[in-house]
Amino acid sequence: MRSLKISGREVLPIVEGGKGVSVSNGRSAGAFAAADCVGTFSGVNSDAFDENGQVVPQVYRGRTRRDRYEELVAYAIRGGIAQAQMAYEQSNGRGRIHMNVLWEAAATPRILHGILEGAKGLIHGITCGAGMPYRMAEIGHSFGVYCYPIVSSARAFRALWRRAYSRYPHVLGGVVYEDPWLAGGHNGLSNSEDPTKPEPPQPRVLELRREMHSYGLDAVPIFMAGGIWCLREWSDWIDNPELGPIAFQFGTRPLVTQESPVSTEWKRRLLALREGDIFLNRFSPTGFYSSAVRNKFLHELMERNDRQIAYTREPVGEHTQALRVGARGRTVFVTPADHQRAETWMRSGFGEALRTP
Ligand SMILES: Cc1cc2nc3c(=O)[nH]c(=O)nc-3n(C[C@H](O)[C@H](O)[C@H](O)COP(=O)(O)O)c2cc1C
């Protein structure tokens, strides 16, 4: 493969995607960098170490919310700096080290400032997805680090470019295209996209490249992320003049490496997966779709999801049937059909009623 200039250095176009919280860390990112690739550690509440090399437990002692918030910021800054130092040591000064942050998480701009200040020269780029982190470009500019916005469509990039990166074009190191159907972790499916109807990634990345071309960004690499396990399967993406410079971001596969911090059980489970074992669900409290391995916990959530019915406190419209729920036998009103379903569930032992959003 041809090397690419990423965050100011020629490296192999192979990237470990950032995985929160501490699923990619200084050790895994440093190993990618040591192999002249790009490693990304998660800068979201990462672990710091004490003088004996033990992980510092993130225990909150503050009495008020404000105090605990300050503690969180301090832990996050200390952890991010520690992971950057570890990545740098592991890398032997090779490759590039990026940090992944979650813009929506509490105090992210402050934490970013703290980490970038405390780990000067150790972090070469920041990746950030979820929502529209317009201020990232300005932060990248003031600290002299490259930015890698994560998008799932050309349209999302257009908004980021117009609002932010057009003012700081020099900080745009690359654009991560995270395929909303293929990528592990949370997925950026838009309302018009169907989780059960995947679209092939190449036309979508071509659209992104055309969008970038219209802003003169032909030399800026696109990181293809989602479903990449073996580059043999992506040979038509390599040296493809229409796609332009492409790097490949691996998220799930690095989990089964020796350097990955996840448990042996998790690694074994991933290596034993069969087609159909992974599905997109909407159980994440973030509201985004996320991909996960089917297990007993998710199975229970899916069943609970099926046992949801709409109710009102008074008889309204079709909600004509009174249903007694909960320990105190409170009366709510549901449709006749739902009443029958609810009775069947209660007879099968699902007698506890919970309110869902
Ligand atoms: C367990 C897990 C956690 C992840 N956490 C994050 C995250 O915190 N932020 C982020 O931008 N991407 C996250 N990702 C996405 C990866 O960076 C990467 O883009 C994605 O996994 C690529 O798809 P693949 O898993 O098919 O290789 C996560 C992925 C996994 C599997």
Question: What does this protein look like?
Answer:
Strand 4 (38-42), helix 2 (65-91) and strand 5 form a beta-alpha-beta unit. By secondary structure, the protein is α/β, with parallel strands linked by helices. The mean pLDDT is 94. It folds into 2 domains: 4-272, Alpha-Beta Barrel (TIM Barrel); 309-347, no CATH class. The chain is globular, with a radius of gyration of 23 Å. The protein contains 9 helices and 15 strands. Strands 3-11-10-8-7-6-5-4 form an 8-stranded parallel sheet. A 3-stranded antiparallel sheet has the order 9-13-12, with no helix packed on it. A two-stranded antiparallel ribbon has the order 1-2. The protein is 31% helix and 19% strand. The protein has helices at residues 26-34, 65-91, 108-118, 136-143, 154-165, 201-213, 264-271, 296-306, 336-347, and strands at 4-6, 9-11, 14-16, 38-42, 96-102, 125-129, 146-151, 175-178, 185-187, 222-225, 246-250, 278-281, 289-293, 321-325, 330-334. It binds flavin mononucleotide. Flavin mononucleotide (FMN) binds at residues 17-20, 23, 42, 100, 102, 129, 150, 178, 182-185, 225-228, 249-253.
Descriptive keywords:
single chain, 8-stranded parallel beta sheet, binds flavin mononucleotide, 3-stranded antiparallel beta sheet, globular, 2 domains, TIM Barrel, alpha/beta, 357 residues, 9 helices
What can be said about this structure in brief?
By secondary structure, the chain is of the alpha/beta class.
List of distinct ligands in this structure: flavin mononucleotide
Strand content: 15-25%
| Separate helix tally | 9
Approximate helicity band = 25-40%
Low-confidence stretches: none
> What do we call the CATH topology of the largest domain?
TIM Barrel
Main sheet strand line-up: 3-11-10-8-7-6-5-4
What string, H for helix and E for strand, traces the elements in order?
A: EEEHEHEHEHEHEEHEEHEEHEEH
- Count of distinct structural domains: 2
CATH class category of the largest domain: Alpha Beta
Average predicted local confidence, pLDDT: 94
